[in-house]
Write a structure and sequence with these properties.
The structure is a single chain. This protein is α/β, with parallel strands linked by helices. The protein contains 13 helices and 11 strands. The protein has helices at about 10-25, 40, 65-75, 90, 110-115, 130-140, 165-175, 200, 215-225, 235-245, 255-260, 275-285, 300-310; strands at about 1-5, 30-35, 50-55, 80-85, 95-100, 145-150, 185-190, 210-215, 230-235, 250, 265-270. β10, α11 (about 255-260) and β11 (about 265-270) form a beta-alpha-beta unit. The mean pLDDT is about 90.
Length: about 325
Amino acid sequence: MSILFITSTRIGDAILSTGILSWLHEQYPEDGITIACGGPASKVFGEVPNLEALHIIRKQRNHGHWWQLWRAMVPRKWRVVVDLRRSAMPWLLLAGKRYSVPYDRAGRHRVELNASMFGIPPQNPKIWTAPEHRETAEKLLAGAKTPVALAVGANWAGKTWPADRFAALADSIRQMKAFAPGAEIVLVGGPDEREAGAALLENQDGGRVIDGFGLDILSTYELLKRCRLMVANDSAMMHLAAASGIPTIGLFGPTKDQHYRPWGENGYVIRTPDSADALMARLRTDPASVSTLMEGITVDDVLAKIAELESRGAIPNTRQA
């Protein structure tokens, strides 16, 4: 029999759902898995074990995308249907077991909320890759000894830390004893985020910058696994780094870190002095301020957190394999 797993359109949410997917595979190791998700998120799942099909959900008028999914899935009986999008689909299909993610009334992290469907402990995200993704990462990092990753983009301007601060952070990281004699700065994100990283790409005083913009998700994951540290806006790249297990510092302003902090024992948060609710209220009253919602975080704030992690021995001494 087979499992139907309905998950997000957004890459970050899809990454956070992979722990449940891994758990399902462990419970039913012989079952095929069909994944229904948005186009961007589908790139996360290309190497999932026992993957039978990826169904891309493309939003249509009058909920037509759900009828399209139903028509594709109704001919068969499913052992388990899991729905992280709270649609009626689990109850419109023939299935042995049905699960739908509950609404959050307790301020839980999305990983915790997903696990609550099954009454199990939170499941760490898991990304599956292939040898070609590992080879791509190794090629990009050839000769790098102290790679430090930065993700300068996000899916909207309001939660994007100013690019000039990322550039100043990179300069300072190169001078830190923890990364001597000079870190290689690894930039990751979508191709549309390369412009935000222009200052880092063009002006690093001779320091090495590794351009990972536009790399596919699975190769980016392997790239991040080999870095010593990640500093990122609240974004898919942040969740990908946290899933890889490297120390990941997430920068938060108008989004709630209690829901979306980088998950795992190596995940850390720096947030603006103002709460997410206060910043969103400001945005509603003054939409022109959208580009300034992250300015409450200073470069010194981030450097202090890195120094703290280094003093605790939380940053590995060498490049990760």
